[in-house]
Write a structure and sequence with these properties.
The complex is a heterodimer. Chain A is α+β, with helices and mostly antiparallel strands. Chain A contains 4 helices and 21 strands. Chain B is an alpha+beta fold. In chain B, a hairpin with a 4-residue loop joins strand 2 and strand 3. The chains are: A alpha+beta, B alpha+beta. Chain A: Keywords: ATP-binding, Hydrolase, Nucleotide-binding.
Chain lengths: 330, 253
């Protein structure tokens, strides 16, 4: 069971939910940018939520399925097609052998996830499948996917081929996932103030929540540079390096902001004026250069409540997906 | 405020200095930082390491990671698991902040075991330290004097950060404490740099802004070695000069 890359994309890598436990070695968590979409992709095909998925940036690769298999596509909408037919996102899909998955047009979003039933058969580095490009380790040989790469699937005992109708390249199963409010109000990003928030002038504090910020083209898996009004601190004390995290909003010396994303460095020395709440990282991960962000201040209490609610929703989805899949194969 | 804890207290640490002030603050909703001051200080760094040691020896459900920086310890956790397992009355953040408080109190008498001195060969010859000549000129020393001063000091590894295995060491003798470059340039793996009172080794090829004075043939980051990162916070390091020929013979090994 495998798939083959017949045409490479801009940046397609194997990722899981991240590599926790090594930041004291300078090795960041990494992993998928949109943890929600990747977890749902796995649930739809009956996998553990931490299985490796392929994170696809636009323009995406073309994938040839070497065998009949069960897949799902979630996250950014690049008008996914299997041969000449559009494929729905957020559904389990049985794919016929030799079908080609491709992504002709960017509709919305910034990272698209492909999961296969059983998961991809790649070796772990430091307990994670995630590709660490700088270390050239993890995922598929520590690098992005290239033409001719063949990625095997883990063996499973369940076969879905009986669900394929004659003459059809794929069959989208009847149920799908409603992503609820995870991606609602995509430009409204909640943050909690960071340790250096109080160093901002009152005018800058107001500007942070009243003005809009635009995502600069120079934004990637490491961080989003933002364009907006210059923010000022009333004291420009130098900071010694200390920890930063996924979602940390740093103030650069030129007054502009950067939001650290999945591949951020473990430590930094710029003022941390805020942190995007975890429940809003999935929608932030789907924003694109030139999209705007409207920051809304909240507190740790609310941040935790929203994250717990999102996790509860994922737990319910997982149970429902399992029940549906089991009823199909029995 | 949203639960910032600022407390003053007195406690004895390993070398009998006193930590008078610290601050616990959320680093987002899934991490807490215990910060003992915006300074490069060996006692504070050792205290943070002792706290990390204690936490790793007393882990809790939902503890994901911890890391020590110059004068702080940060704990990464899963708030959903904390809420589920410990059902705290307040936030998961407050619960973890309390754990850090405990770590601070429990490590009062901890003394760091003296670590073995790690000696690192460095070639300071032409072609290995592209910024050495300029640094010597700006400090009005000869290149030989810069090398002598750089190799004379025993450095403390304060933290690993920036890149996998990048070691932040100090403190550099003030006679050679040159500021970092205005614009970063490409740096080869193994390069030894100076930035103010810090010195460090680039474990990977990377853009970098430190003044590169030499290069070690040792591989300080090897992803597939049993221990991928050779240096860790708390280590003591001294450099010694080697010739080009010695550098090349190392590379063969």
């Amino acid at each position: 069971m495998s798939l083959t890359i017949i045409k490479p994309g801009l940046l397609d890598t194997l990722q899981d939910q991240g590599r926790a436990g090594y930041s004291r070695l300078g090795i960041n968590r990494g992993g998928v940018m949109d943890r929600y979409a990747a977890q749902v992709a796995n649930m739809l095909v009956g996998n553990d939520t931490n299985e490796a998925v392929i994170e696809i940036h636009f323009p995406g690769a073309q994938f040839l399925f070497e065998q009949n298999t069960l897949i799902s596509i979630t996250g950014g909408n690049y008008n996914a097609m299997l041969n000449d037919e559009p494929v729905p996102l957020w559904h389990p899909i049985v794919v016929r052998k030799n079908a080609i998955l491709h992504f002709p047009k960017l509709q919305n979003g910034s990272r698209c996830y492909l999961a296969v039933h059983g998961g991809f058969c790649v070796s772990k580095w430091l307990n994670s499948y995630s590709t660490h490009l700088k270390a050239a380790a993890g995922g598929f040989h520590g690098r992005k996917l290239e033409k001719g790469d063949e990625i095997s699937f883990k063996e499973t005992s369940i076969y879905f081929a009986g669900l394929l109708k004659p003459g059809k390249e794929f069959e989208a199963l009847k149920w799908g996932v409603d992503t609820g409010n995870t991606y609602e109000h995509p430009n409204e990003i909640f943050f909690i103030p960071g340790n250096e928030w109080e160093q901002l002038t009152n005018q800058s504090k107001d500007a942070m929540v009243e003005d809009n910020f635009t995502i600069h083209p120079f934004s990637d898996r490491m961080g989003y540079q933002l364009k907006g009004v210059d923010l000022k601190r009333h004291q420009n004390t130098e900071l010694v390096s200390s920890a930063v995290s996924f979602g940390t909003i740093q103030l650069l010396p030129n007054g502009q902001l950067i939001v650290l994303m999945a591949d951020h460095q473990t430590t930094g020395g710029y003022p941390r004026i805020g942190h995007v709440i975890s429940a809003h990282l999935p929608k932030l991960a789907q924003l694109r250069p030139s999209d705007c962000i409207h920051f809304i201040r909240t507190d740790i209490d609310k941040a935790e409540q929203l994250l717990i609610a999102q996790q509860q929703e994922l737990n319910i989805l997982q149970r429902a997906c399992m029940e549906r899949l089991n009823s199909m194969v029995c | 405020m949203y639960g910032c804890v600022l407390k003053k207290l007195t406690s004895t640490i390993s070398n009998s200095k006193v930590i008078s002030q610290y601050k616990i603050f959320p680093l987002g909703d899934s991490a807490v930082t215990f910060d003992m001051g915006n300074s490069i200080s060996e006692p504070l760094n050792q205290k943070a390491l002792a706290m990390q040691h204690w936490l790793l020896a007393h882990p809790f459900e939902g503890l994901k990671d911890c890391l020590v920086a110059y004068s702080s310890l940060t704990v990464l956790y899963n708030p959903v698991l904390i809420k589920k397992y410990y059902n705290p009355a307040s936030t998961a953040y407050a619960w973890v902040a309390d754990k850090l408080q405990q770590a601070f109190e429990k490590t009062v008498q901890t003394k760091q075991a003296a670590r073995e001195l790690i000696q690192i060969p460095v070639c300071y010859e032409a072609g290995y330290g592209p910024d050495l000549a300029a640094l010597a000129r700006s400090t009005q020393l000869t290149e030989q004097e810069v090398v002598a001063i750089h190799t004379d000091t025993i450095y403390n590894v304060y933290m690993i950060g920036f890149l996998p295995g990048f070691s932040y060491m100090g403190e550099v003798d003030e006679r050679i404490a040159a500021p970092r470059k205005q614009t970063p340039s490409p740096v080869l793996a193994g390069s030894v740099g100076i930035a103010g009172s810090q010195t460090g080794i680039y474990p990977l090829n990377s853009p970098g802004g430190w003044q590169i004075v030499g290069r070690t043939p040792l591989r300080l980051f090897d992803p597939f070695a049993p221990e991928p990162v050779k240096l860790q916070a708390g280590d003591r390091v001294q450099f010694y000069a080697i010739t080009k020929e010695e550098f090349v013979s190392y590379s063969v090994i």
